[in-house]
Design a protein that fits this description.
alpha/beta, Rossmann fold, 9-stranded mixed beta sheet, 5-stranded mixed beta sheet, 10 helices, 16 strands, 22% strand, disordered C terminus, binds S-adenosylmethionine
Length: 345
């Protein structure tokens, strides 16, 4: 079935789809490579075209945060365009060309995150070390996919954290994780030590670590879901944006896919620019940006903190128990729980 034909979906399926009207309405919003030549200031938009070709047509030094989520070294089709697995050295050479092409767009204070799996991580560390200061590797649990018969099931991905200099933004308080406290300590007077006693349970806001087990890969009942084969969760991108930028900063994603980075940047009051080779994905990104004009919630981020997976009912109790305003309650009613109360994967 072509991506332009409508799929049959179950009633509760909330996958974002494009209609023909959407395509006609949104197409004029896309920038082409040739239109970039006429711009003096960085556009806040989606560019349809090859990212490396676009890079040489963009102004220098405007990016505060670059998120690189390139095709991994797997044979995979992106709406009919095939990326073919190649030897590790070849992938590293390709990635080096990509990173080098974008280097002049970055401010001296910029942060760069590069996504990969266990195999591409081998190339990412070497390539990024040549261009940036590599500061950390975040590993996130990717609870999806089939098991292997003669190998360990691949259940994790990496995000490499790099900066252009020692002068960079890191808002640690903006990315705390609210965790349930299992064995709460108390002061001598009985009051909670470093944790909060709430109607929905006991919680502590913990420092963000480089091991993330709270990310759900978008699935059919999540309002952010699309048919893009490797869509990242808004929650995951929100952590990167909140930690490494301030309001009004410029976020750049040259492998935009379904638009997650631009959408999250918009929801969090940052400027954004994305580039994507495939027109259908560009239009999906624009549709999501359009939807974000009236709905700026990010699933799993509420009350100024990130929440562990499978805590939806606790979040709801906590929020209503605290008498939060209706807008925030709406945010929680947005997510769908599985039959056993868990977020379905
Ligand atoms: C791993 S996906 C990114 C997914 C994205 N983070 C999201 O949340 O949807 C990589 C994307 O890069 C696009 N792409 C591949 N080569 C490209 C190129 N040379 N220029 C621009 N986009 C490219 C693919 O079409 C694909 O959508």
């Amino acid at each position: 079935m072509s991506s332009q034909e409508k799929k049959q979906r179950a009633g509760r399926n909330r996958t974002i789809e494009l209609t023909q009207d959407d395509r006609v309405r949104l197409r004029p919003r896309l920038l082409t490579l040739s239109s970039l030549n006429e711009l003096d200031t960085p556009p806040q938009s989606t560019v349809l075209g090859d990212a490396v070709q676009a890079a040489s047509r963009l102004p220098t030094g405007f990016v505060d945060l670059m998120i690189l989520d390139p095709p991994y070294n797997l044979t995979k089709s992106f709406n009919g365009r095939k990326f073919t697995k190649c030897p590790v050295d070849e992938y590293a050479t390709w990635l080096d060309g990509v990173v080098g092409a974008f280097r002049h767009l970055l401010k001296p204070t910029a942060t760069v995150y590069v996504c990969g799996d266990w195999l591409t991580s081998a190339s990412i560390f070497n390539v990024c070390s040549a261009h940036f200061i590599v500061r950390n590797r975040i590993t996130w649990e990717r609870e999806k996919g089939r098991g292997a018969q003669a190998n360990w099931k691949n259940c994790s991905e990496d995000i490499w954290f790099c900066t252009c200099s020692d002068n960079y933004t890191f808002n640690v308080d903006a990315v705390k994780l609210r965790r349930k406290v299992i064995a709460p300590y108390r002061h001598d007077d009985g009051s909670p030590k470093d944790w909060m006693q709430e109607s929905g349970g006991n919680f502590r806001d913990t420092h963000p670590s480089n091991l993330w087990t709270d990310i759900s890969v978008p699935f059919w009942s999540m309002p952010e879901n699309t048919d893009h084969p490797t869509q990242k969760a808004e929650k995951l991108i929100a952590k990167l944006v909140l930690a490494s930028t301030n309001l009004g900063d410029f976020v750049f994603d040259p492998f935009l896919g379904s638009g997650t980075t631009s959408v999250v940047a918009k929801k969090l009051g940052r400027r954004y620019l994305g580039i994507e080779l495939d027109e259908e994905f560009c239009l999906l990104a624009e549709r999501r940006l359009e939807l974000a004009e009236s709905r700026n919630e990010i699933q799993g981020f509420a009350d100024g903190v990130f929440w562990e997976r499978n805590t939806l009912s606790i979040q709801q109790r906590h929020v209503s128990g605290n008498g939060r305003p209706p807008a925030e309650r709406l945010l929680f009613s947005d997510a769908t729980e599985g039959a056993n109360g868990d977020d379905p994967e």
